[in-house]
Fold:
Amino acid sequence: MGSAVGMYDSQSNSSMSEHMVLPESAEGGAPNRVPEGHYTSQHFTAAMIRAEVPNYDRCYKFTFVRDPYTRMLSAYYYRTGNGLKEYTDFDPGTFHEWVSHLLGGPEDVFRYPQASFVDDTVDFVGRFENLETDLRKVLDRLFRIRGMCGVLRSGMPHVRSSGLPKGPLVGMMLLKTRRMIEKFYGDDFSEFGYEKQ
Structure:
């Protein structure tokens, strides 16, 4: 899962549809169209994209982020290959061991805070928790720029879901696991307004 930075060049009136994907945020819920020959990896920072994309500064840029707790839970279920079928299946001790290994281990794309992918050139930062509403804002902005009327179908599918919603599991995490996530992803909590629990 990740997130897209979409860009629209308002001067040439064309959509560049470039994407920056943040690990475990909103990929699968939003379209991920990358022009052939541009990027082979999904995980680029805004600065990396800016260095490669002509007219970057003229583009409308957006991205989606996710609550750091549920981002870790989603990464856990994605990496272990286990979908969450019942909340009673969650083992806080096993999850703590996995998080400890991930955050203390070798380089891994999920170790990077989402804030490290975004800079002040990004025009809109939406939240996974408000995906449909925030994506509607992006589409309204793009269609307004183009002088068109946009329609977003309700009930947008989440393509790569790993089972039940992860929110209820946050309260089931060990306190030391939550504190570890809060410390490691402190910038995500502060920059994107997520509350620590």
User: Anything to note?
Assistant: Residues 6-192 form one domain.
